[in-house]
Amino acid sequence: MKSNYFSGFCLNNEKELFCDYLIENDFTLSGFSYGAIKVFEEALNSDKRVDLIQLFSPAFFQTQNEKFIRMQLMFFKKDSKSYCENFLKNISYPSSVDVTKYFKEGSYEELETLLTYKWSKEKINELLEKGTKIEVYLGKEDKIIDSKKAYEFFKDFSTVYFMKKHGHILKGL
User: Fold this and answer.
1) Mean pLDDT of 93-120
2) What pLDDT sits at residue 1?
3) Which of 110, 136, 146, 173 has a CA 20 to 30 Å removed from the CA of 34?
4) Helical ranges in the chain per DSSP H
């Protein structure tokens, strides 16, 4: 495996934001938002031992309609700079954490992947059957994903930590 931590969309080296929750060892993979998708797929397709995956605010858009996804992609394509500035502001909410130092320009393809990714109950069960445990961390005040719908989806397969007064980067006021 290349890395044990996978970054979110438009971010790089933001792992320190999750140090309160992060378990670091050779058998744990962690990822934030878009990185949670990458972690899940890595663990599912790896022949190496993975005891635990930690999904911090996993990109969960499968309850959104096609129009929402098209609009997000259109806004990004039209003005990626403004889209990313707004995105960084929204991932920080409700905290005052400045995430601009972690900014790395994301691509249209990455955004499209995270918006259209479908979390599959069958794939999750396949991973659980391999002996991998799943932890999901969600903030109730998340402005990026619908954390309540994500909670409803993941609660039957994993340990879910649902944090009141916390947003997408799992920081509160």
Assistant:
1) 97
2) 43
3) 173
4) 34-45, 66-78, 80-92, 108-116, 121-129, 147-154
